[in-house]
Amino acid sequence: MPYESFLIAGLLLPFVGGCVAALLPTNARNAEAWLAGTVALIILALLASAYPRIVDGGVIRFTVEWIPDLGLDLSLRMDGFAWMFSTLITGIGFLVVLYARYYMSPSDPAPRFFSFLLAFMGAMLGIVLSGNLIQLVFFWELTSLFSFLLIGYWHQNAQARDGARIALIITSAGGLCLFAGVLIVGHIVGSYDLDRVLASGEAIRAHRLYVPGLVLVLLGALTKSAQFPFHFWLPQAMAAPTPVSAYLHSATMVKAGVFLLIRLWPAMGGTQEWLWLVGSAGLITFILGAFFAVFQQDLKGLLAYSTISHLGLITLLTGLDTPLGQVAAIFHIMNHATFKASLFMAAGIIDHECGTRDIRRLSGLWRSMPITASLAMVAAAAMAGVPLLNGFLSKEMFFAETIEVHDNSIVDQALPYAVTLASMFTVAYSLRFIRDVFFGPASTELPRTPHEPPFLMRLPAELLVVACLIIGIVPAMTIGPILHAAVRAVLGSTLPKYSLAVWHGFTPELLMSIVAMAGGVAVYFALRPYLLSGIEGPPVLRHINGRRIFERVLVTVSWRFARWLENILGTKRLQTQLQLLAVFALMAGLLPLPVRWAVTDYGSASGFDPVFALLWAVGVSCALGAAYQAKFHRVAALMLLGGAGLVTCISFIWLSAPDLALTQLVVETVTTVLLLLGLRWLPRRIEKISPTERSAGTIRWRRSLDFVIAACAGVGLATLAYVTMVRPAPDSISRFFVENAYTQGGGANIVNVILVDFRGFDTLGEITVLGVVALTVYALLRRFRPAPESIPIPEQQQAQNVYDDRHPDRQKGDTLKDAMATPALMMALLFPVIGVTALFFLLRGHDLPGGGFVAGITMAVAFIVQYMARGTIWVEAHLRVLPVRWMGVGLLMAGGTGIAAWLFSRPFLTSYFSYVETPVIGSIPLASALLFDISVFSLVVGATVLMLIALAHQSMRSHRTPQAREARTREAAPMKPAK
Amino acid sequence: MTAAFPFPAIVPAVPELMLAIGGVILLMVGAFRGDRVAPVINGLAIALLILVAITVLYLPPGTLTTFGGSFVVDDFARFLKVVALLSSAVAIAMSTDYFAAVNHEPFEYPVLIILSTLGMLMLVSANDLIALYLGLELMSLALYVLAAFHRVSARSSEAGLKYFVLGALSSGMYLYGASLVYGFTGTVSFDGIAHATLQTSGIGLIFGLVFIFAGFCFKISAVPFHMWTPDVYEGAPTPVTAFFSAAPKVAGMGMVMRGAIDAFPNVVDQWQQILVFVAIASMALGSFAAIGQRNFKRLMAYSAIAHMGFALVGLAAGTEEGVRGVLVYITIYVTMTLGAFAAITAMRRDGRIVEDVADLAGLARTSPAMAFWLAMLMFSLAGIPPLAGFFAKFYVFLAAIKAGLYTLAVIGVLTSVVGAYYYLAVVKVMYFDEPAKPLEKMAYELKIVLTVAAALNILFFLYPGPLLESAALAAKSLFE
């Protein structure tokens, strides 16, 4: 039981420690180190206590519900493989903490470093202990994040920032791919639980989504483990403090990729795709990494490329797709972690004590720091694969594995030679590390005088090197059981035969080792002249810089491409936006057509009537003309629009809807007049079409395009309207109205009955809105300031005034008065006629076309005509129009009619009707709805006239304003000298 | 007319009534007392919104319908209403400092937000095409005014005008589609349409569907009807933009979901095609176009477009799980965007408002707390685990994969990687660029919004239960 809680405690402890570390004061280096070290040691102790169970092949599990409805549990699972990795993470973590205590300078903010380091440790433990894949991805991304933060620790350094950024982009993008891959795997298996995934290898490999899933998972793993072609982030990450490089970028985080590969091998491996994808990535990385490493002038750069190369080796082993390959891979993970971490520490010590890590400047350090030099040499020898060191053992296994036949292709046959070649480079760079740094003449001109570091700073490296030696000499006794447990956890019960002996006799792999050694020495001495020339990077290939290519691609693909895209697609111009919107709507409308072109319910065109067609031809031409003239001649466009409106009216009559036609007619009239009045105050048209110089051709083309779009949209709408119209109307409430209008509402004009009776409540709302609109128009126009160029009186009037001025017998404005004399008289006479018509419409509205609304607008026309004929001043001097009062009366009356129904204990707005015999007119229907209709009438008159007045008063105000301004300036002028 | 007309039950609509009456009362107070009572009205408006949110939670349980079935209150509506109300309240709280800084403290601002929110509540409860339109217009009309709220600024007026013109056009499209659907099914009620489409789905209906969705897409700023978004985001005063980015998106998404699931459940394959296209186009355009932006608000506009695309991925799945994903997504998105806008609203230097990403240079050194919270929000927007934004994406992609929409999910993941670029670019500017002159101190209410939003995003993964469960309930009620 306690083991289970150990797991969660071990996972949480680093995070808790990280939070505590963040809270300590900036200079608390010792406290931080103590804290972090203790955390690592406690976890190590927990791991040690779990060892007995693990070594027997036991698995410790811990599960709590996390997001239950998704089937996601927080599930921890420790088997031998995870145990081995956890021990590496915490063990090396402890040593790194100890090392960092002495490495970091007192001026570096310690809390940030140690809290990130601890948090990273927790995230890494999370990866290896995760019992489900989603959780694994979660911790995976966390490690990317902390790696970013740790690489960028010295954020004042531009290199660190760039390195951090590149590492984050590459690894987190890879993490997202991994996530997608995991989702696919989970989809295939039906669960994200690791045990179930591992158990369903057959199903995964047989599934049609296997290849995409595999590619995505591999993208995640290969980016994290810095495999070709994603390897270039790792050398950039060397800008991090050396403890970070030792810990994250050699021992643990970069191993997460190969960890995942090995972990998922039973489920996803064993196919040609795996062999080729993983194997070739590993092989290329192994060779290229080793080759590049030889040519590095920066100590850490050399180690970085060497790490890439060794990770390639491990990947290649995994990719060889055999159980034995996995064994060798696991073994090499451990070995590489020990010797590479100690090498990084040594490099850090050199950097720390000499002030530089440039190989060109370092030389003969053997004399000044003998112990460090010995440590580094042993570790480098392990890296090169010298016998009696741990590197030798796993390398032998590796060679043995490459000799085996896999798929017997040319690549497979060439494999032993290729890896021997790469191993030569490995030996060469190890030799270079030893010889160039520690031997030769003692270097002068170092920024600091080199000397041995403090004992405790050297201790971690010492411990690791001792481990290299012990494992190298007595492997079976020391690492044997751990490796066995780890291998068993990965491969299950069927273990391949492997032997952990130092001496296997004279085997081909031994020969390969010897060739590699000898060849490596030869390569080193052959390349020495080139290396001494001080050029960074290998010949020719150094010009191919992965990082530069990446950045260029990033810049192009990302913002260059984006800007380009935005220039093409984006626009800030309303015109273009509208155009696009219309085009998209049109396309959306056309979209269903090819999908199903069903001409089933189009109905039959009931006879073609030439007159009606001609009528519509007129209407369409009016509409087209209006569209065409809209830019050039607003008044003409408005007139043509009126023409189209009239055609609509006639169409209504044609389709036997006289009431609708009547309403349409009066509304059309009033709106046209009001629009005309409004047009007077719009700013003058800008003659030039575009402020920028454009050729006439472009303009014509654009305008024709607009025209075509408009025409298409119009035709589309008309077609759809037609199609809808000729269909049998759905059975709706209209039948109810037809049947009950007379019996219940007492009117034959159904529309009117609906308005004032059935839907009286709606009408009440509508007239209220109309009133509000009118008031708003009035309020807005009261503050309206016309454009300066539209303030002077119109051109015609100016010309007339000039004429009047020239003739002494005429007064200003006479011509206008004369010209308007006859129309004005006629219009004045029309006033009562129109009034009576309005009354007529109002009274008959209940049964015949008409009604309060129509009557109201007709009455408003009477007022409008007066304003037009005589001008605002004359009309208002002779006629008291109180539109607001009209509106108020209308609203109150409408409400009153409604409430009156309550008196007869009926619901609001219930109507009553009967017929009344009157002497002259005859029998008129007298429904209470008539009262309501009258109130509608009153309101409509008021609202329309109010809008008219608001417009009309513009002419008075704007003529006055310049004069008033003149008067004001004249008054102000004499004041000036006084000031 | 003699037949007695039963007065509709008003209990389900009590929150809306409270909001309407409250809004009008506040308007009257403002109209008679003038702008100097603006702070009081702000406070009262926030209180009102929160009160209404509580009322929504205490409505009788279960699915309630009224007004002849055109207004429905189910768990889905409750969920979205509460989110919309709270984000509106936060948007009001975020405005005070800004308007004080530009010396223009109008009392109309909270009132307009209340009226717009009223429209949203009606929108998510709308159960027929007409009620939906009513809510839509009520919401939009207030939004048009809000976009042009900073009258003296030409950009703001331009934004309002553009939004109005394009919005009117899109409303027209919606109405046109609605009338076609009515013409071919003979009903406007969602249940009726669903019933009518059981037997036939003629081409006319598809036309109607397409136009209705075109209108929808405009309101949630999805490609290809997104053009207004960057202009309006940039032109409108920042608190208004913050409001735009949160509550209307919630309501808009609710509208699309109810419309798609309740009215057209029998033509899923038809609207699925539309949504898949719209989602892909929005994700791609939003992600790519944002990269080139220098103005932070414009960047957030493209980010909003992309996020709407991500959310639509869930709806495109057409399943209960997908709807739940969208609900979770939109809720998390609201916290992210409000938090980010709290920071943007606070961007002021020497009394002038600055809006460029470059103005954040070196913020990590001049005001580390603000930089940290904003960075967390950027990470969350980018969808980096373990932040909430990651889970938001996770659920919608999961739903899409379960529904077999692999292409959509893969494109979604790819575009979110692209999207990560510009969010990280913001972080980079804050952390790695040389500091410019420090920004002015953040007002405390903005600080609270930023901190709370970021903290919610950071800690979401520890206790995701409440949100996930209530979203699941809401999604379930939509499918009943």
List the helices and strands and how they pair.
The complex is a heterodimer of chains A (979) and B (480).
Chain A: H1 2-23, H2 29-55, E1 60-67, E2 72-78, H3 80-103, H4 110-129, H5 133-151, H6 158-189, H7 194-199, H8 201-206, H9 210-224, H10 233-236, H11 242-251, H12 255-268, H13 272-294, H14 299-319, H15 323-354, H16 365-368, H17 370-384, H18 390-403, H19 410-438, H20 455-473, H21 475-478, H22 480-491, H23 508-532, H24 546-569, H25 574-590, H26 592-595, H27 610-629, H28 634-654, H29 658-679, H30 696-726, H31 734-745, H32 750-758, H33 760-782, H34 795-806, H35 814-844, H36 852-870, H37 872-878, H38 883-903, E3 913-918, E4 922-927, H39 928-972, H40 975-978
Antiparallel strand pairs in A: 1-2, 3-4
Chain B: H1 14-33, H2 38-57, E1 64-66, E2 71-73, H3 75-101, H4 108-125, H5 129-147, H6 154-185, H7 190-199, H8 203-219, H9 228-235, H10 238-245, H11 247-263, H12 268-291, H13 296-317, H14 320-345, E3 348-349, E4 352-353, H15 363-366, H16 368-382, H17 388-402, H18 406-432, H19 444-459, H20 465-479
Antiparallel strand pairs in B: 1-2, 3-4
Overall mean pLDDT of chain A stands at 83
Mean pLDDT of chain B: 89
Question: Which of globular, elongated, flat, extended, rod-shaped describes the shape of chain B?
Answer: globular
Q: How are strands sequenced across the largest beta sheet of chain B? A: 1-2
Cross-sheet strand order for the largest sheet of chain A: 1-2
* Broad shape of chain A: elongated
Judged by helices, strands and strand pairing, the structural class of chain A is mainly alpha
Assembly state: heterodimer
Largest interface: A-B, 70 and 71 residues
Largest beta sheet of chain B, briefly?
A: 2 strands, antiparallel
Find the structural class of chain B using helix and strand composition: mainly alpha
Share in β-strands of chain B: under 5%
**Main β-sheet of chain A, in a few words?**
2 strands, antiparallel
- List the helices and strands of chain B in order: HHEEHHHHHHHHHHHHEEHHHHHH
Radius of gyration of chain B: 21 Å
Contiguous low-pLDDT stretches of chain A (5 residues minimum) are: 597-604, 974-979
Tell how many strands the DSSP assignment of chain B holds: 4
